[in-house]
Specification:
With 121 residues, the chain is α+β, with helices and mostly antiparallel strands. It has two helices and five strands. It has a single domain, classed as 3-Layer(aba) Sandwich (Glutaredoxin). Helix 1 packs across helix 2. Pfam families: DUF1636 (PF07845).
Length: 121
């Protein structure tokens, strides 16, 4: 079963300026997460709007049959992308999707927005 990182590519952090920017903050984060996830066994996909605009930039970590998580308020940085991918790897290695807090990468602590229970079979 594959763990997916879904990245909102329309996210714009406070201060984003359409006149100066060539990409959204979400597109920039997506490119960094995709690069960081390459070869890790974690899949990525982009979607347009996860409806978490007040917490941009947003991602969702999920897999079939496991608890999933929405996370937000990331910066489009290599450090944040690496933390997201590291957490997703831990999620992938977990039977239920739960990862003990003490094991979370520092870069995801404080970014959790909501938990999604698995859809019934």
């Amino acid at each position: 079963m594959t763990t997916w990182i879904t990245i909102c590519d329309t996210c714009k952090r406070p201060g984003w300026d359409a006149g100066e920017a060539t990409t959204t903050d979400g597109e920039a984060l997506a490119a960094l997460v995709e690069a960081a996830a390459d070869g890790t066994g974690v899949a990525t996909r982009r979607v347009s709007c996860t409806m978490g605009c007040e917490r941009a930039c947003n991602v969702i970590v999920q897999a079939a049959g496991k608890i999933g998580y929405s996370l937000g308020q990331f910066e489009p940085s290599q450090d944040d992308a690496a933390a997201i991918v590291a957490y997703a790897r831990m999620h992938a290695d977990s039977e239920t999707g739960r990862v003990p807090f003490r094991e979370w990468p520092a870069g995801v602590k404080g970014h959790f927005v909501s938990r999604h229970v698995p859809v019934p079979e």
